[in-house]
Amino acid sequence: MAQNLVRLAAKRILSIPQRSISVTAIRKQDVALTQEERDRIYPRIGDRDVVGYGFNGTASYMDREEMPFPAIRFKENTDDVLALRELEKGDWSNMTIEEKKALYRSSYRLTFAEMFAPTGEWKAVFAAFMVCLGVTGWIVIFMKKFVYSPYPETITPEYQQKNLERMIAQRQGIVEGVASKWDYENNRWKK
Amino acid sequence: MFRSIAQRLGATATTVVRSNIQRTTPVVCTVRHGHGKKETDEEVDARYEALFNNPELDGWMFRKACNDLQGMDMVPEPRIIVSALKAARRLNDYSLTTRYLEAVKAKCGNRLDVIWPYILQEIRPTLDELGISTPEELGFDKPELAVEDVQDIH
């Protein structure tokens, strides 16, 4: 019961309000937080702006394809980032490509292309699988060499030949079986 | 003997069934919709366009609306995208535009080569007017930074 309470309390710590109407704030932000919320959230996220609801109301950052806009910006509000924000207020045609990219990177960690980029993890998985197959092979060799008893003599072709001759001599299966296919007058298989 | 017993049992069964049917009260049939009225595509488009065109839109609502749009099983109409770009301009936030364009691109799925040029062609006037670069022009269509997946950091 105490554990559940602790868990509930921990969940409340990072959550931001469901809906905040923008009013004048200390720093220009889209989301206005009360002082109590600010005390709760900011020690954990540093100097970053809270900008939205995010995925579940907590002030967290995550790159997700299905929710492209997380609750907080990615980078802290350092001087160069703030300078870029000033630049943003003017005409966007005046911004260079590098500035636009820097602005994007200040708000987001990965682009969509980077989110979907292949990781090459399949090579590691395939390698591990082959190693396991190799270990299995060694175990098979060990079993054959040291554990299983040798084959019985009944397996050799000579023994089976002698066995077949005995079956024919004993007339085994004379109606529909082996001996019915043997031609006893001419000492050979029936045509 | 068994026949008489069976007949008596049958009689009681039918009386029980009949009395149950008589006791059933008529129920008013309510129409069930699951989650409420279904909107037509046109209504959804108009609603989001109006939302983005609202001059009192703030960053919170913009992001919430875009997240919701991303969750819907559709590629947004160019007019929604245009109104979203204009809203981002009003909010003075450039990275929103690039992020949203990338998100729309992601929504196109495996029909990217059919849908994306059409969308670009439709929103090109707005892009030029506001000075927004497409993700391709920024070089964001190829991965630029390689980062370790957070799940792999031990």
Automatic annotation (TrEMBL), chain A:
<protein>
    <recommendedName>
        <fullName>Cytochrome c oxidase subunit 4</fullName>
    </recommendedName>
</protein>
<dbReference type="GO" id="GO:0016491">
    <property type="term" value="F:oxidoreductase activity"/>
</dbReference>
<dbReference type="GO" id="GO:0006123">
    <property type="term" value="P:mitochondrial electron transport, cytochrome c to oxygen"/>
</dbReference>
<keyword id="KW-1133">Transmembrane helix</keyword>
<keyword id="KW-0812">Transmembrane</keyword>
<keyword id="KW-0472">Membrane</keyword>
<dbReference type="InterPro" id="IPR004203">
    <property type="entry name" value="Cyt_c_oxidase_su4_fam"/>
</dbReference>
<keyword id="KW-0496">Mitochondrion</keyword>
<comment type="subunit">
    <text>Component of the cytochrome c oxidase (complex IV, CIV), a multisubunit enzyme composed of 14 subunits.</text>
</comment>
<keyword id="KW-0809">Transit peptide</keyword>
<keyword id="KW-0999">Mitochondrion inner membrane</keyword>
<feature type="transmembrane region" description="Helical">
    <location>
        <begin position="124"/>
        <end position="143"/>
    </location>
</feature>
<dbReference type="InterPro" id="IPR036639">
    <property type="entry name" value="Cyt_c_oxidase_su4_sf"/>
</dbReference>
<dbReference type="GO" id="GO:0045277">
    <property type="term" value="C:respiratory chain complex IV"/>
</dbReference>
<dbReference type="GO" id="GO:0005743">
    <property type="term" value="C:mitochondrial inner membrane"/>
</dbReference>
<dbReference type="Pfam" id="PF02936">
    <property type="entry name" value="COX4"/>
</dbReference>
<dbReference type="InterPro" id="IPR013288">
    <property type="entry name" value="Cyt_c_oxidase_su4"/>
</dbReference>
<comment type="pathway">
    <text>Energy metabolism; oxidative phosphorylation.</text>
</comment>
<keyword id="KW-0560">Oxidoreductase</keyword>
<comment type="function">
    <text>Component of the cytochrome c oxidase, the last enzyme in the mitochondrial electron transport chain which drives oxidative phosphorylation.</text>
</comment>
<comment type="similarity">
    <text>Belongs to the cytochrome c oxidase IV family.</text>
</comment>
TrEMBL record, chain B:
<comment type="subunit">
    <text>Component of the cytochrome c oxidase (complex IV, CIV), a multisubunit enzyme composed of a catalytic core of 3 subunits and several supernumerary subunits. The complex exists as a monomer or a dimer and forms supercomplexes (SCs) in the inner mitochondrial membrane with ubiquinol-cytochrome c oxidoreductase (cytochrome b-c1 complex, complex III, CIII).</text>
</comment>
<keyword id="KW-0472">Membrane</keyword>
<dbReference type="GO" id="GO:0005743">
    <property type="term" value="C:mitochondrial inner membrane"/>
</dbReference>
<protein>
    <recommendedName>
        <fullName>Cytochrome c oxidase subunit 5A, mitochondrial</fullName>
    </recommendedName>
</protein>
<comment type="pathway">
    <text>Energy metabolism; oxidative phosphorylation.</text>
</comment>
<dbReference type="InterPro" id="IPR003204">
    <property type="entry name" value="Cyt_c_oxidase_su5A/6"/>
</dbReference>
<dbReference type="GO" id="GO:0045277">
    <property type="term" value="C:respiratory chain complex IV"/>
</dbReference>
<keyword id="KW-0408">Iron</keyword>
<comment type="function">
    <text>Component of the cytochrome c oxidase, the last enzyme in the mitochondrial electron transport chain which drives oxidative phosphorylation. The respiratory chain contains 3 multisubunit complexes succinate dehydrogenase (complex II, CII), ubiquinol-cytochrome c oxidoreductase (cytochrome b-c1 complex, complex III, CIII) and cytochrome c oxidase (complex IV, CIV), that cooperate to transfer electrons derived from NADH and succinate to molecular oxygen, creating an electrochemical gradient over the inner membrane that drives transmembrane transport and the ATP synthase.</text>
</comment>
<keyword id="KW-0349">Heme</keyword>
<keyword id="KW-0809">Transit peptide</keyword>
<dbReference type="GO" id="GO:0006123">
    <property type="term" value="P:mitochondrial electron transport, cytochrome c to oxygen"/>
</dbReference>
<keyword id="KW-0496">Mitochondrion</keyword>
<dbReference type="InterPro" id="IPR036545">
    <property type="entry name" value="Cyt_c_oxidase_su5A/6_sf"/>
</dbReference>
<dbReference type="GO" id="GO:0046872">
    <property type="term" value="F:metal ion binding"/>
</dbReference>
<keyword id="KW-0999">Mitochondrion inner membrane</keyword>
<dbReference type="Pfam" id="PF02284">
    <property type="entry name" value="COX5A"/>
</dbReference>
<keyword id="KW-0479">Metal-binding</keyword>
<comment type="similarity">
    <text>Belongs to the cytochrome c oxidase subunit 5A family.</text>
</comment>
